[in-house]
Amino acid sequence: MAPTRQIAGFMGPLALAIGIAMLANQQAISGMAAEIARNTGLIFLSGILLLLAGIAIVRVHNVWSGGWPVIVTAVGWLAVVGGLFRMWMPQMAAPIADRLGGNATLIIVAGAVLVALGGFLSYKAYGPIAE
Fold first, then answer.
1. Which of 115, 113, 106, 116 has its CA nearest to residue 26?
2. Residue 29 in contact with residue 93, Cβ under 8 Å?
3. Are 3 and 61 in contact (CB under 8 A)?
């Protein structure tokens, strides 16, 4: 369980911070998405970083049973797939980023999901240890 709590201790606060930033800066997030959509080099670079993070997570934590630790593994695999998509098809990722960034409702929903996920993982990482 120790690697699960350690990884959740990184993922949780990061997701929480990103979610709060998305909710607090909706206009800026929309503008950033539009800028990113015009820069396939940045999309490619973000794919490299996302792939690296995903591989690091699944290399240490590839657990598909046992309750909440599955969330950590699933996020790791989503990062691997997302990173590969951005690297292999940055020209396809650009219009997706543009469309999604222009949708205010989606920014709010994504921010709320990240706050909930980040709060949950942070609690599991830093809260009381349940045996």
1. 106
2. no
3. yes
